[in-house]
Write a structure and sequence with these properties.
globular; 2% strand; two-stranded antiparallel sheet
Amino acid sequence: MPIRSASFVSALVDAEAVRERGLPVADYFLWNDDFEFTTRLLRGRRGLLCPGSVVVHKTREFGGADADPGDRFFYEVRNKIWLFTGSRGLAPPERALYAGSTVRRWARTFAGSSDRAVLRRALARGVRDGLLTRPRPTAAILRETGALGETDISLPHDGRRHDRDG
């Protein structure tokens, strides 16, 4: 079955596509990182769902996409704004479709929340940061954590490999 995006859970991706279009953007971590990455990899390509792939995702409690996220809603909002305004994963008509779907899901999230004041604050912070900031380059984040040394290659969002001289 054809797909346009996927969760990281049980995803198998083409290494050549990752070399061409880049790694997941580290600053998206927690929300929409898999959505941004897989839409970017699959744009103009074919993605397939394999129903025979079975995943056991052990969590304390199952939470659907519209479960009350509390303060974490900030990441949903900020990262979606980053995705809609800066990622090359979606074509303009897809951006409109997914934006509409997002607003509808956010409305359901608010309707089902036990603490809408927390969600309102997270929404305001997410909108502000989504519009006023951009994700940091993944290579910079990896260097900060010590995962990349000063002499390692950089890994820009566009997926091209560069040495330190460019």
